[in-house]
Amino acid sequence: MARARTPTSVPGSERRGRGFTLIELMLVVALIAIVSGLVAVSIRDPAATRLEKEASRLSALLESARAEARALGVDVTWRPLDRNMADADAPDFRFEGLPPAHSPPMHWLAPGIVAQVVGAPALSLGPEPLIGAQRVMLRLDERQIALATDGLGPFVVVADAPADAQR
Predict the structure, then answer these.
(1) Is residue 74, in this structure, part of any structural domain at all?
(2) Does the structure show a pLDDT above 70 at 163?
(3) In CATH, what number is assigned to the domain containing residue 114?
(4) Full domain range(s) for residue 86
(5) What's the distance, CA 81 to chain centroid?
(6) Rounded CA gap, 95 and 106, in Å?
């Protein structure tokens, strides 16, 4: 006596093997790549974020001081200071030449920021509209970022050469 078989799928669609199809594998690999990319982009280095924030803030402070130097007709310089870590109230930098009523902040927002003017002890901010090309390096741990001006335009974050090329 022969047993009758009940078909479990549409005729012709039966799978011979038990593995995955190439399309299924490609879809899984694509999904893993997309998720990995999103995770990598969403994870930011906190030190780099703090350094970028300080660079943006310093750029705004320098441009404000340049505008006040032109408006008041006074010679203004910005000087980073070597701060003693024991004295938390000591200023991190100083704007020289501005009257006390126009004095901007003198502290970094994040602790550990170190600034160095490249090729000079201080930045000259005016009163002349053309101040000469200048650059300042900001460092936090092993990270660094450069702010520069060509003398006519504002201070902006610039792509910087390796530290060995500056010496």
Answers:
(1) yes
(2) no
(3) 3.55.40.10
(4) 46-166
(5) 22
(6) 8
